[in-house]
Structure formats: structure tokens, C-alpha cells
Specification:
By secondary structure, the chain is mostly beta strands. Helices cover about 10% and strands about 30% of the residues. It has 13 helices and 94 strands. The strands form 16 sheets. Strands 40, 41, 43, 48, 49, 50, 52 and 53 form an 8-stranded antiparallel β-sheet that branches. A hairpin with a 2-residue loop joins strand 77 and strand 78.
């Protein structure tokens, strides 16, 4: 078929060259929207191939290719190919995705690495498989089960900016044959074994086995058979251990001699001498046949090794000598000569010529060396010249190291072809297709996947050591250190991988090992023997054929010890002879590994007082005979676990901080011990007391270690372990293994009523101290995965309190505490512990920082405390009351209700996150007072009918001892002294209920004044005697939580919270009024003479009483708060919205909204920008104008003054730069900006920040709201944006003076406005004439000149003028309006039908109507009737004929809509009204029979038998715009060449009384518009002249 692209494509694509070349426009500014598809579906076996013409380096990622079952003709193109759904397979990089989800991670060539000129194709085979072709090579099947009809997909993504289709035809037969042949070769390779390791290494091991056979024969023992395929030395049979006839040292010498003889015989041509040793060493060694091969390939067990060129025969299996060829002997193993010859061919593994920038290759590319090793530590990457075969050993020898850097050699495999790879500085920087061994761990794509892979660390290898790797045929990757297999490092390795070596840090020079010489083989087998026998290789004074029976069973110190240590008393005692001169180098190890459950215990004999620190004890996997002992064991970075002080360290890193008894406090005579249990757990003892599990998964062969450090000068091994108690048994199985000190692993019974931490917890958490302490291990490398939970659910009113014992300053964020509901789905036994508890999306309530979160979502901000501000020693508690309220306590102080409606069974949860490392349960945990344990017996707040008319409140009968109540509780008088004047409201306050008093008398002989506030103390619970139970003054009332105002200071339980709050109470005198009010957002406000002074306190509890203290000067008050005043406020008529004048809908319709009156706006503060701002900002115009002078970011601004409540801060967009994408964002921050470290963009603000970006709202960079207001990226120049925080702490956005509604709640005070001049927005200016918020002032004076009595209907103003106001559409650059206008031009309607002034054309797309602040519904006509704005449509204003009689009365007509077809437009416009007989299927129908709206009979003056045509209308386009009434037509946009669908309709004025409302024409049960009932959604008129065309409506999809 023709290789051509479909004309429909991504929005940034431009096609040329007969639709064969695709180019992504704006390649530097945009990286996506570059999707193209084939014009026709693919045929089976056709390869749709494109050539990469051009790439840019601005982005990551590159071309993506695949197939889709979606027809491009009707496809809504996503931004990238990975967004295609509905049957789409895409190859991206080296991954295969189906419908956007990865189905294959490592496949074929990495498309991101292709260069300009490379060709890539996609094919559906006849078997329904997907194949990728790169430069004519088939990469194999990527997916199967593909449907037959598919289109090719190419995504010009990231770096790829232009491609050209080169062909679409089946591949050549030769290419397919090559693919088949390659597949067969791969299968054959999987069956073969590599001779490098298979023959020579196994032959050496076979020689060792013959020696073992000889040794066994000498002792008369039967030697077991040993397969040469054993990979790890710890899996050799125990019979090989040197305890059967020879000592280990004699056996060691025999092994060495056998190995040397074997290799010498190879070089001299007498290979059979060693292998025939089992048979007497002759040419006909019959004994050798008994040791037959255990491996089909590559083994030599008694059979002849090989025939050499010299003709010297070797036939261990009855063979004869004298062969001059290289034919295999025995079991068909190739001889060494043949092997050597093969390795010198071109197939030999060498280093690739392309390598790191500092690498120098030599020795025929077998040796690599890093230049300038003392100046540079990286850029030393080398790779093999070809991919590794299955089971092929890639081995290198370390030739040179330098001692300047940390870190050393790294080795691994990668799927990247060295020809195409841009070599990184270090291979761990590569983020795809790479597996590296670094240190003792495994890194996959640069991320650690196995922390402790093996016992060896590459950083500790020396010159001459060997490192190798092999990819098995099964896909498993193994690493070898000195030929010892370290086990599986990765289970699924890709089939095509290259070997890679990174000469990093200390590593300078390496050589690929092909032919292993004698010393290499001897050294490597020495390593095997060292692993088999702990003491092999260590010189002994004498060699005895009779081993010491007691030696192996007794634990002693090894003779190899630290530089400053000495071993005495036959290995039982270790000391530092010069302990007062040196404090370290005193490391000693046990002479043999510990057995399971064997306790190694030492007694401290001697100590010195000169140093800090003391003895340390632990275990290590290192053999003391070959360990280069460090100055202290905590410096060892592999295979070591040590208890030091009261913590535990693993490989030099602390894993437990507060583990057990502090070893630094021990004295001479104290004992310490260590034991490894059978389950792999490690336990320590101090003076015979078990300290609990310290670590898990300890390998079996570990040596005991004692570090005589600091004060510890001498220690002796204790032989008698009888005094040690048995270790507590636990059931540590599987992933839910119990950690130290968990309730189930602690000796001694615990009652079920004790609150403890549960034994199940997060992976990084550890439970100690009998279940009372929880800590996070590896606290400086891990910050999460440390969730702990209570061992049982909390009872009602029970406090669960913990104390923070340790914190680190490494992380941001601190502890997260909360409760986790204990329903069946989330009981601790069934909970899969996440990284953090806020990740759980059901039945979870958490306090994080100041935010209350439910099921992972923030439900409330600015709670009464901030957990991120707590320090070590702080106490945190939580409690569920009987009413289901959750309370938090900080240092014993109730912070108020956090949330309500909790179910009864909840578990306490602590998330040791970030800085918080260790906590413990306090003794305060348990039941609290009954006021919270049981339901309050007090009545809830209801209106109280006081005996005093009109008074809503009265005072409670319990009060201070100097108070006298008068007027049936409506007045209070202090009759003596200056204190003891506390009084309470009689009932709890409701939300938003004001409690207000008037000062009646003052006494100037006293200083100070009254105090007022709210308290959780219930007066009915006070003692009956008023002489006791109350504090003398309100600041001293601390039995329950109390919030109060003293002078101008806000206090909580007497503790100062705020200063300089409002007007000081000390200045009040007789006649002044003061009140307190608890708002529904849990804030306390103080009102003075009716003026709200703002929020004084937050997180106020729900059940609170008003409290007043007649203190100092104030001696008498009376209640003045009245239910009558509150009722009057609640029924006030709504004030006129500014929408009445500013016209969201230009016809003058009045929006159908009810706006509550707001308090008078405060005097606005003059705002200016702060001098501290983003680095690309330049201020001018007295800091009122800000401009971004370079780049597209670093344009963050903050106002110098805080934003007062109810003050509208506005600024204007002065200049936009269309070269960039996106635009400004704005918001508020809740902290002072003076020391703010300005990030590059506002979205990086993550502390107390609320951000409005595009059409979304973010809090601390987390999205909390979508589809809010207009899209800020579409705001043109001249747009005025504003922010306001109302008295309820709610944030509002204003666009051109229109309130867009509440964007966020719980905004703190003070807050500061910020603007981010990002992308297109380059300059803004503050609007200095600040206008108060809508509703903040009286509606008088607004548009009053236009108001007449006849224009007021139900208190809502009607516009006098029906014509649109002379106001330009603010969204001048609306793309949707431009698209609709181009469709209108295609209709070829005469311009004379339309209004010449384009400003009367209005777009009702989402961005435009939100920018104007349009309401959804308006009223129009006499009598007023609702109609809906045509959201989603674009209106083009029609010209009204001047002679039209209805023009003068147009304002009294109603607004309706009429859907029609494109073919009926011209005739309708010609008659200027909707006429009977138009071709619209919606508008006209005959009415001979009775219709649903009562038009059953013709009019009296109608001609007999004449059909009366009817026109149907609707007040909403949701009905008139249905496809049944406004059929869709398809058109091609002349600008973008894309296909769209369009509908048309009319906005009409209809005369009242000329129509009748009725039900919809077709039956549906779903409401079409929430404002209009389906029974009245259709208007029917039959009167000619009863409708007037007002605008043409167009909607494009």
C-alpha cells in the first residue's frame, strides 16, 4: 500500500512531502503533541518504516512507534502515544506498553538511542504478533494476540522532531531467514556450556577431588562423589573438611602441590600425570575410571585430561598414549591447546574501542587503565566488544589500585550497545538496562535493589584479585569473586547484554582474564580452601597427623589480632598492653565460627579511665586469618554486626539507636555476650541478661568479635555458660517477623489491658523495651516505612500518649500521629503496611504537621498544633471520646476536636517519619476524666428563652466566690476584691453564636480589666459550693482547655499564643460592649462594640462555654446578646451583586443568585511588592510594578504587607510573551516572606502555601481542587486578577472584579500574597485603588441611576437597557471562538445579517465565561422568567432591524433557544424570525391532533381543516442543543486541516404569553437541566411575530 500518513494528526504536527514527512512544530518549546498515524490500516507482514530525519537535544525520550485499533478519522489525539487506549501497543524506549500500561520492560533496541538516519518500523505478522524492526533487523515478537485491523502509530516525542515514511511493504525473504537462523542459534547457545570455566576450572576442582579421594583412601573412609557444578564452597560435602586423616595444613600443602603439578603437566605436555594420579599416575590408570564425570561437559574426574601436541598420552579411562591430535579425551572435553587457540580468534572477549574519556586501552584491548588516577576518579567506563553469550564467563583481574579515593571498581552488564552509548561519568548514572555490582550490593538502573548481595565487598579487593560475571541460560546473573560464585544477583537478565567495568575511585587498571596461569588458579583455589577451612594457610609451629580433639570445640581468641592487642593464656584472654597510650587497634576475633545457639561471652578484666567509650562486641563473616584488621570494627563496611554503646551497627551504619544496656557504663567484672540463633537472629547479653533480637538474617558462618576500645583494656572468654538464662522463644517467621521486644517475644506475661506497640509494624520499625518503645532503624538513610500501631483498640476516653525520645536533623517533616480504624479490613494482622499511613485511602485519620487527613486526603488545615515543630521530650497523645470525637494532646494539653464521627474500635498509629526516630509510650496512657469518657450530661445548645425579653443568654449559677448574679442570671456584679469573678454562660455556645456583654460599672482603684473567652470546662461539673473549685482569675484556669483574651494578648491555658490582638480590653469603659463567638471553622473571634477583631484562636473545641472574668477595674456587666438580632441578620434581603451592573450576560439579565451581606470592609492596606523576590525579577514604580527580565521562571513575587481579612488585592497583567507556554500563578503563604528562599517556580512552595495555577488549586504542592475558575493560562493582557481572604478564612479569586467562589479554606492569619511570573506572563502592576470585596459594602450607589421601581422584581434589579453594554470580550485570544468563527465563514452567510461590532459576539466556553464571572442562570422579561446561559456555545450577534416594533419593548420579552439544522439557517435569517415550514426537524410540526400542551383545536378565525404549525423553543441549550434537534455536521478546519463536528442554533427573544411550557418531546427520566423540570422544559408557540432572532449559536466538537 502507499506509504502515507493520515491527514489528521497531533496538534503540533505539520505534514509535507505528500503526507510522507511529519514535523513537530515548536520543537524547542514543546516535547509532545506529535502523534501521527498511517493513512490506511496495516496489512499482515507489511513493515511500516520511517526514517528519523531530525533530533534535538532539548528533551529526554525520543521516537515511539506502535499500532492502534483506533480509527484516526474519529480519534481524539492525546498528547503522546502512551495515552492511546482502546487496543494500542506502543514501543517506548525499550519497553512495550499496551493501552498505556507496561507489558514488557526490556525489549529490542532502545529507541531513545537511535540517531538521525536510523530507520525503525512496525509490523503485524500473519500470526497476530507485533514486531519491531530497527535498521532492517527484526527485534522479535513484542506482543501477541493483535486484532487484524490496525493503524501504524508514530509519536514524534522528545528529541525526535521529524520523520519520513520510507516504505510499507513486507520484509525481504533474506531478512526473515536471518531472523529464523538467529533464533535457532540462540536456542543452540542455550544448550552449550562455555569451555573457559567449564573445562579448566572444573578440571582443577577434579584434581582436588582426586587428592581428597587419596586422603580418604589413606584413612579407609569412603569419599563421597562431588559434582563439579557446585557453585559456592559452603555447599561442598562436609567429608571434605580436613578432619579425616590429614590435618588441614597438611591437606592444604597436598592441594597446592597437586594444583601446581596439574598445571605444570599442562604446559609440559603431561596432562595425564595428575588426572591419572587416581589410577596410579600411569598411562593406563584404571583407578581413574571410578571417578567418572558428574557433568556432561567440561569435567575431568579421573578420565584423561587431554592429549598434548608432544604426543605424551594420558588416558585415565583405559586410553592409550601417543596421539598427535587435539581430539577430546574421556568424556569429550576440548583440550587446552584447542581452547587456547579458540580464545585468540576474533570471538575473544575484549574491551570495546569506544570507552570512557579517561580510559587508555592496551594489550590488544585486553587491558584498560584510567588516566590521571590521582586527579580524576570517574569517567573510566569500559565495555566488552560484543554481547556475552549464555554461560560465558567474563572475568577481569585488578592490576592497579590507588589509595586516594573512596569507592572502587564496579562491574556488571548493560543492554546498551557501546557503539551508540553516550558514556556516562559512572555507570550507576545510567537509568536503563544496566545491572551493576557496587561494593557488596546490586544496583539496577542506578537504584539499589539488593543491599547485601554477598559477603565480599568490591571496595575491599586488592591488586591481583579476580572478579567475574556470567549470565546463565536461564537468565540468572551471577558474580564471581576469585572464582567463588556469589549466587544469583538478578533473576531475569535480558538476553543481549554487554559486560561493563567501571574503573571508579581506587580502581585504576584491569585486564580481561582468558588463560588462567598457575598462580591465578592456586590463589583462587586457596580462596576456596579458606572458605572450607577457617585456619587453612595460617602457619603452625608443627604439623601433627593426629588432630587435637579438644581444639575445634573450644572457643578461643585467634592469634591474628589488632596492632595494639595481644593474646595470652592460651588464647583465652585478650588485652591492650599499652591501654593508656592508645585507645583503638584492639580488635580480636574468635578462632572459629560460632555454632548456632552457641553463646560467646567475655568478662571485662581491666579498664582504664583515660578514654571515652568502652568494649564493643559482635560478629563478622570475615576469617581472622585473612582479615586486615581495622583500627576499630565499626570501620569495617561489610559482613559485620556490632553492639557499641547502647546501639547496634551493621557495616558501620547504625541500625538500632536505643537497643539495650549501654556498654560504655560497664565496669571491670561485668560480662557481655553474643549469640546467633538457628533462625538467623542475633542476640546480645549484658551480665547474663538477654537484650533481645538485634538483627536478623545473619549468615551461618560468623566469627565472634571483641573490640577492646577506649576504657576496655582486657577481656577473658567465659567457659561456663550455665548462668545464662534461656533465650525467649519467638515465632519469627516470614515477613511478619517480630522485632526485638515485641509483646510476643518478651519474657514474662503481659495483661491484655496494657497498651503496647503491636508486634507487626513497618519494615524499618523496631519494637523494644517490652513493646513500649518504637524506633526507626537506619534513620539517616531511611525516612519512612516505620509505622507502628497499638496492640489493641482504644477504649472510649482512653489516652494513648508517647514521648519523642530521639530526632535527627537530616530530614524535613517530623512525626505523623493518628488513629487507624480497627475494622476487619485494616486490623494490624491484616494490614499491609504502606510507606506512610497517609497513603492508606480508607478508614484512617491522621494528623500530619497541622493538617487533619482522612483516608489520605486533607480534610482540615491549621489544627491547633504543628507536629513538625515538636522536639525531643515532647509528648503527643490521642484519644477517642465516647461521642466519636478525636482529640490530640500536646504535653498533656487538649488541642481540641480534630475530627468527628469515628467508629468505636480504633487503633492508635504512630508513623516515625522524617526527623522523628524513636518514641516510647508514657505512663500517662490510660483513661482520662469522665467528661470525655462518657457522653456529656449537659444539654446541647438550643435557643434559651430567658425571662428577660429578647435576651438570648444568661449566666450559669456556678461562678466565682465574689460574684453575685442579678436579673435572673442576666447581670453579674463583683461584690468584693479584684479577683474571683469568673462567670460562665448557662449553656454551650452553638457554632456562629455570639455571646456579648455590656460593661455597666468600673472601679478605678484597680488595674487590669475583664477577661473573656471560651472553655471546655462544663460548669455543671464544678463543686456545688461556689467558694471552691475555681481559680481566682481566668488565666489561672487550667483544669480544662481555655482560650481567652487578656488585654491584647491571646492565651491558651494561660500560655501566651498571640500579642497585640485587636483593641486592648484594658481600655474599655462603661457602655462598651465585648463579645465572643465560636465560628463553624473552629475559630474564636472577639467582638468589641460589634466589630469583629478577627480570629483569635484556632482549633477550638465544639462543646465550649463562654467564660468571663470580672477582674480588676470591671465590676459589673450585663448580657446584651439577643436572639432577635441574630434572627434579623439571618433574614436580611440579599444585597445586589455587582453582576447586575458588570453583566456576566450582556442582555442585561439578572443572575439568579443570593448574596449574603458581609461586614463592612476594613480600610485596605496599601500593598507593594517585597524587595526579596526571584532572581529574574526587576521592580519599578515604587515596587508596584514587577517584570521578569530573563528566562521563563525564577519570577516569584511576594507582597511586603500581609493581606488583611476582607481586603481585595488586585493586579493587572501588563505584558505577555507568546514565545513561552503556560502563564502566571498566584496564591498566599501563611508565613513571613522575609527569609523565604525563593524557588524557581511557585509549585515548589511546600510549606503553608495555597496556589492557584491554571484552573486548579494546590496546597503545599498537592492538588486539592480542579476546574476552579477560568484557566489562568488564557488570561489576556489587561486582565485584572485579585485575591481576597474573607472573615471565615476562605480564599477567593477575583477575575476582572468577579468573585470565582471559595478556592481554599482555613487560610491562616497573617498571610501574604504571592505571584509567579511564569512562562508567558512577564509584567504585572498592582492596582492601587483597592476595592472592597463584593458584599463588603452596601449595595447603595451601585447602578442606582439605572434603577426604577418597575425594574425591581422580588428585590432583584433588572437592567433598564436591553442592548449589550459596550464592554469588550476580555478573552481576546480565545481559540474556541476563533474556530467557531471560521466555521461561520464556511456557511457563506451574508455579513448583513450580523452586527458589525464584533464586541457583541460572546464566547461561552469554560475559560471565557469564568473570566467574565457569568452566572449559570439569569432572569428576563415581564414577568421575569429564568433562562440558562449557553455554556459551551459561541454566540454571534445578529443585527436587529430598526423598524421592528418589538425593539422598544424587547426588555420585557423572555429569552429562549432554538436548535436547527445548517440547511435551515439562510431561510430563517431571511425572515428574521422562526417561521413555520423550516426544514428543522425540531422547530415545526403539524398540530391536527391534541398535543401535550393543549393545542388541540384551531383558533376561531382559522380556516377550516388547516394545519396549525408550531415552533418549539427551550430556556436551555442543554435541551435545544440535543442532536435530535440540532443535527451535527462535519467540516474541515481550513487552518489546522483537522475534521470537526458542529451544531447550530438561535438565541431568540419570545413574547410573553405567546407560548406555552410543556414536557419534552421525547421521553426521558433523567433531568436535562437542574434548573428546569422536564415537564416545563419545552416552550411551544404558534404565533408569527412572537419570536425575534437575537444571536446565532455555534458549537464545535
Amino acid at each position: 500500500m502507499a506509504a502515507e500518513l493520515h491527514p489528521r494528526s497531533g496538534k503540533l504536527i505539520g505534514l509535507s512531502n505528500s503526507n510522507r514527512t511529519a514535523r513537530r512544530n515548536q520543537p524547542v518549546q514543546e516535547f509532545n503533541h506529535g502523534l501521527v498515524l498511517s493513512k490506511e490500516p496495516l496489512k499482515d507482514r507489511d513493515v511500516f518504516t520511517v526514517r528519523i530525519d531530525k533530533k534535538v537535544n532539548s528533551w529526554s525520550g525520543s521516537i515511539e512507534i506502535g499500532v492502534t485499533a483506533l480509527d484516526p478519522a474519529g480519534l481524539d489525539f492525546p498528547s503522546s502515544a502512551t495515552g492511546l487506549k482502546g487496543g494500542s501497543w506502543i514501543v517506548s524506549g525499550c519497553s512495550v506498553l499496551r493501552d498505556g500500561r507496561s507489558v514488557l520492560e526490556e525489549y529490542g533496541r532502545d529507541l531513545d538511542q537511535l540517531a538521525e538516519g536510523d530507520r525503525v518500523g512496525i509490523q503485524r505478522s500473519s500470526r497476530g504478533e507485533l514486531h519491531l524492526w530497527v535498521n532492517g533487523q527484526d527485534c522479535g515478537a513484542a506482543a501477541s494476540g493483535l486484532p487484524p485491523k490496525l493503524w501504524a502509530v508514530v509519536d514524534l516525542y522528545g528529541k525526535c522532531t521529524q520523520v519520513t515514511v520510507v516504505s510499507c511493504e513486507p520484509p525481504s525473504p533474506s531478512a526473515e531467514r536471518e531472523t529464523i537462523d538467529l533464533g535457532d542459534e540462540e536456542e543452540e547457545e542455550e544448550e552449550e556450556e562455555v569451555v573457559v570455566c567449564g573445562v579448566r576450572e572444573d578440571a582443577g576442582i577434579a584434581a582436588l577431588m582426586n587428592v581428597a579421594t587419596m586422603n580418604g583412601t589413606m584413612n579407609g573412609d569412603e569419599v563421597p562423589e562431588l559434582s563439579c557444578t557446585h557453585s559456592r564452597p559452603d555447599k561442598f560435602p562436609n567429608n571434605l573438611e580436613p578432619d579425616t586423616g590429614l590435618t588441614e595444613h597438611q591437606l592444604f600443602d597436598v592441594f597446592n602441590n597437586a594444583i601446581v603439578s596439574f598445571y605444570r603437566s599442562e604446559d609440559d605436555g603431561g596432562g595425564g600425570e595428575v588426572c591419572g594420579g587416581g589410577g596410579g599416575g600411569g598411562s593406563t590408570g584404571s583407578t581413574g575410571t571410578d571417578s567418572s564425570s558428574r557433568n556432561e561437559r567440561g569435567s575431568c574426574s579421573g578420565a584423561g585430561v587431554v592429549n598434548s601436541d608432544s604426543g605424551t598420552g594420558s588416558a585415565g579411562g583405559g586410553g592409550s598414549g601417543g596421539s598427535n591430535n587435539n581430539s577430546p579425551a574421556g568424556n569429550g572435553v576440548p583440550g587446552p591447546v584447542a581452547l587456547t587457540g579458540s580464545m585468540t580468534t576474533n570471538d575473544a572477549l575484549l574491551f570495546h574501542e569506544k570507552c570512557g574519556t579517561l580510559i587508555k586501552l592496551s594489550n590488544n584491548n585486553k587491558t584498560a587503565e584510567r588516566r590521571r588516577p590521582l586527579d580524576e576518579f570517574n569517567n573510566g567506563v569500559v565495555m566488552t566488544n560484543r554481547p556475552l553469550r549464555h554461560n560465558e564467563m567474563f572475568e577481569i583481574r585488578i592490576d592497579k589500585l590507588v589509595d586516594k579515593w573512596s569507592g572502587s571498581i564496579e562491574i556488571g552488564v548493560t543492554t546498551h550497545n557501546p557503539n551508540n552509548l553516550d558514556y556516562p561519568a559512572t555507570m550507576t548514572n545510567l537509568r536503563s538496562g544496566t545491572i551493576m555490582m557496587s561494593g557488596c550490593g546490586i544496583l539496577t538502573n542506578g537504584k539499589g535493589t539488593r543491599r547485601e548481595y554477598c559477603e565480599f565487598s568490591l571496595d575491599e579487593l586488592q591488586e591481583g584479585d579476580h572478579i567475574g560475571l556470567m549470565r546463565k541460560a536461564s537468565g540468572a546473573l551471577h558474580f564471581y569473586i576469585n572464582c567463588i560464585d556469589q549466587g544469583v544477583a538478578a533473576a531475569q537478565t535480558p538476553g543481549v547484554v554487554y559486560g561493563v567495568v567501571d574503573l571508579y575511585g581506587m580502581a585504576v587498571k584491569v585486564t580481561i582474564v582468558h588463560n588462567h596461569n598457575h598462580s591465578d588458579r592456586l590463589r583462587r583455589n586457596n580462596a576456596i580452601m579458606r572458605a572450607l577451612s577457617p585456619d587453612v594457610g595460617r602457619p603452625r609451629p608443627s604439623l601433627s597427623l593426629t588432630p587435637d580433639a579438644d581444639g575445634p570445640d573450644r572457643l578461643l581468641f585467634h592469634a591474628n589480632c589488632g596492632q595494639k592487642a595481644a593474646i595470652i593464656s592460651d588464647g583465652k584472654t585478650a588485652l591492650r598492653p599499652h591501654a593508656t597510650d592508645d585507645f583503638n587497634h584492639g580488635v580480636v576475633l574468635s578462632s572459629r565460627p560460632l555454632r548456632s545457639n552457641e553463646v560467646f561471652q567475655v568478662r571485662i578484666d581491666k579498664m582504664v579511665d583515660k578514654w571515652a567509650g568502652s568494649i564493643e562486641i559482635g560478629v563478622t563473616t570475615h576469617n581472622p586469618a585473612y582479615l586486615q584488621l581495622p583500627s576499630t570494627m565499626t570501620n569495617l563496611r561489610s559482613g559485620t554486626w556490632m553492639m557499641t554503646g547502647n546501639g547496634v551497627m551493621h557495616n558501620g551504619t547504625t541500625i538500632l539507636d536505643e537497643y539495650g544496656h549501654n556498654l560504655d557504663r560497664l565496669k571491670a567484672g561485668d560480662t557481655v555476650g553474643v549469640v546467633r540463633k538457628e533462625d538467623g537472629s542475633l542476640h546480645f547479653f549484658v551480665n547474663g541478661v538477654a537484650q533481645g533480637p538485634a538483627a536478623w538474617n545473619i549468615p551461618p558462618s560468623v566469627y565472634a568479635v571483641v573490640d577492646l576500645y577506649g576504657q576496655a583494656a582486657q577481656a577473658t572468654i567465659m567457659d561456663d555458660m550455665a548462668d545464662l538464662p534461656p533465650l525467649p522463644e519467638d515465632s519469627s517467621e516470614g515477613p511478619n517477623a517480630m522485632s526485638p521486644g515485641s509483646p510476643c517475644s518478651i519474657g514474662g506475661a503481659m495483661t491484655t489491658t496494657d497498651l503496647r506497640f503491636h508486634h507487626l509494624h513497618g519494615t524499618n520499625a523496631v519494637i523494644t523495651n517490652g513493646g513500649r518503645t518504637a524506633l526507626r532503624q537506619n534513620c539517616r538513610s531511611e525516612f519512612n516505612d516505620a509505622i507502628v500501631i497499638s496492640n489493641r483498640s482504644l477504649r472510649d476516653g482512653e489516652l494513648f500518649e508517647i514521648v519523642i525520645q530521639k530526632m535527627v536533623d537530616r530530614w524535613s517533616g517530623s512525626i505523623e500521629a493518628g488513629v487507624c480504624v480497627g475494622v476487619t479490613a485494616i486490623r494490624p494482622e491484616e494490614l499491609e503496611f504502606p510507606n506512610t499511613m497517609t497513603d492508606i485511602d480508607y478508614d484512617t485519620w491522621m494528623l500530619s504537621g497541622t493538617a487533619i487527613m482522612q483516608d489520605g486526603n486533607t480534610m482540615r488545615n491549621n489544627y491547633g498544633c504543628d507536629l513538625d515543630c515538636l522536639n525531643s521530650g515532647s509528648r503527643i497523645g490521642m484519644m477517642r471520646s465516647a461521642t466519636g470525637d478525636l482529640h490530640y494532646y500536646i504535653n498533656g494539653v487538649d488541642q481540641g476536636v480534630a475530627c468527628s464521627g469515628l467508629p468505636p474500635d480504633v487503633f492508635a498509629v504512630i508513623d516515625l517519619y522524617g526527623q522523628c526516630v524513636q518514641v516510647s509510650i508514657t505512663s500517662s496512657s490510660g483513661p482520662l476524666d469522665n467528661s470525655l469518657c462518657t457522653s456529656n450530661i449537659t444539654e446541647k445548645s438550643f435557643p434559651i428563652h430567658s425571662p428577660v425579653a429578647g435576651v438570648a443568654h444568661r449566666l450559669h449559677g456556678k461562678h466565682g466566690k465574689n460574684v453575685l448574679l442579678l436579673g435572673e442570671g442576666c447581670q453579674a456584679v463583683r461584690v468584693g476584691g479584684y479577683a474571683h469573678g469568673i462567670v460562665f454562660s448557662a449553656k454551650e455556645l452553638r457554632a456562629d453564636e455570639l455571646f456579648e456583654v455590656r460593661i455597666d460599672e468600673v472601679d478605678e482603684q484597680w488595674c487590669g480589666s475583664l477577661h473573656i473567652g471560651l472553655t471546655t470546662l462544663a460548669p455543671p461539673e464544678l463543686p456545688s459550693c461556689p467558694m471552691s473549685g475555681l481559680s481566682p482569675s481566668l488565666p489561672q484556669l487550667r483544669t480544662k482547655v481555655t482560650w481567652l483574651l487578656c488585654g491584647s494578648e491571646v492565651r491558651r491555658n494561660g500560655v501566651l499564643q498571640r500579642q497585640n490582638y485587636g483593641c486592648s480590653l484594658d481600655r474599655l469603659t462603661v457602655g462598651n460592649r465585648v463579645g465572643v463567638k465560636r465560628f463553624s471553622d473552629d475559630t474564636m473571634h472577639i467582638l468589641i462594640d460589634g466589630e469583629d477583631m478577627g480570629a483569635a484562636a484556632t482549633a477550638v473545641s465544639k462543646n465550649v462555654y463562654a467564660v468571663l472574668d470580672l477582674y480588676g477595674r470591671v465590676t459589673a456587666v450585663s448580657i446584651v446578646s439577643s436572639s432577635l438580632m441574630e434572627d434579623m441578620e439571618s433574614v436580611k434581603a440579599p444585597s445586589l451583586s455587582s453582576d447586575s451592573c458588570s453583566e456576566g450576560e450582556e442582555e442585561g439579565g439578572t443572575p439568579v443568585v443570593e448574596v449574603e451581606s458581609e461586614p463592612c470592609a476594613l480600610v485596605p492596606t496599601i500593598m507593594a511588592f517585597l524587595e526579596n523576590h526571584g532572581k529574574n525579577i526587576q521592580l519599578s514604580n515604587q515596587n508596584l510594578t514587577a517584570a521578569r527580565v530573563s528566562s521563563y521562571n525564577q519570577g516569584l513575587l511576594v507582597t511586603a504587607q500581609p493581606l488583611a481579612r476582607q481586603q481585595l488585592f488586585q493586579f493587572q497583567i501588563d505584558r505577555l510573551n507568546p514565545s513561552w507556554t503556560s502563564s502566571l500563578s498566584l496564591g498566599v503563604i501563611g508565613h513571613s516572606p522575609d527569609r523565604l528562599n525563593f524557588p524557581s517556580t511557585a509549585c515548589c512552595l511546600k510549606r503553608s502555601a495555597w496556589l492557584l495555577q491554571r484552573d486548579s488549586v494546590f496546597h503545599n504542592s498537592l492538588k486539592i481542587c480542579e476546574n476552579y475558575g477560568p484557566n489562568l493560562d488564557t488570561c489576556p493582557e489587561g486582565t485584572v486578577l485579585g485575591l481576597l481572604v474573607d472573615t471565615n478564612s476562605c480564599l477567593h479569586l477575583y477575575v476582572n472584579g468577579m468573585d470565582q467562589g471559595v478556592a481554599a479554606q482555613d487560610i491562616p492569619s497573617p498571610c501574604y500574597t504571592f505571584i509567579d511570573l511564569y512562562g508567558q506572563c512577564e509584567q504585572v502592576t498592582i492596582v492601587t485603588n483597592n476595592v472592597p470585596a463584593e458584599g463588603g459594602e452596601s449595595s447603595e450607589g451601585r447602578c442606582q441611576g439605572d434603577m426604577e421601581k418597575a425594574d425591581m422584581v422580588d428585590g432583584i434589579k433588572e437592567s433598564v437597557c436591553w442592548t449589550p453594554p459596550p464592554e469588550v470580550n476580555p478573552n481576546k485570544t480565545c481559540e474556541y471562538q476563533a474556530l467557531c468563527s471560521r466555521f461561520k465563514d464556511l456557511l457563506t452567510l451574508p455579513d448583513g445579517y450580523f452586527n458589525e461590532d464584533a464586541k457583541f459576539n460572546l464566547c461561552y466556553c469554560e475559560s471565557c465565561h469564568k473570566l467574565r464571572g457569568d452566572e449559570a442562570y439569569y432572569k428576563r422579561g415581564e414577568p421575569p422568567r429564568d433562562y440558562a446561559l449557553p455554556f459551551g456555545w459561541c454566540r454571534f450577534s445578529l443585527r436587529i432591524k430598526p423598524h421592528c416594533e418589538v425593539a422598544n419593548a424587547l426588555k420585557k420579552w423572555h429569552i429562549a433557544y432554538h436548535g436547527t439544522s445548517v440547511g435551515a439557517l439562510r431561510r430563517t435569517l431571511d425572515h428574521s424570525e422562526l417561521l413555520p415550514g423550516t426544514s428543522s426537524i425540531f422547530s415545526v410540526s403539524p398540530a391536527k391532533t391534541e398535543g401535550p400542551n393543549g393545542y388541540s383545536e384551531p383558533e376561531e378565525n382559522s380556516a377550516p381543516g388547516r394545519e396549525v404549525p408550531r415552533v418549539r423553543l427551550s430556556p436551555t441549550m442543554r435541551y435545544s442543543g440535543l442532536e435530535l434537534f440540532a443535527p451535527k455536521v462535519q467540516f474541515r478546519d481550513p487552518r489546522s486541516h483537522r475534521s470537526h463536528q458542529a451544531q447550530v442554533g438561535f438565541q431568540v427573544c419570545v413574547r410573553p404569553g405567546s407560548y406555552k411550557a410543556g414536557p419534552q418531546t421525547f421521553s426521558t427520566s433523567e433531568p436535562l437541566d437542574p434548573r428546569f423540570s422536564n415537564s416545563e422544559i419545552e416552550w411551544i408557540t404558534k404565533e408569527q411575530g412572537g419570536t425575534l432572532l437575537y444571536g446565532l449559536l455555534i458549537r464545535v466538537e
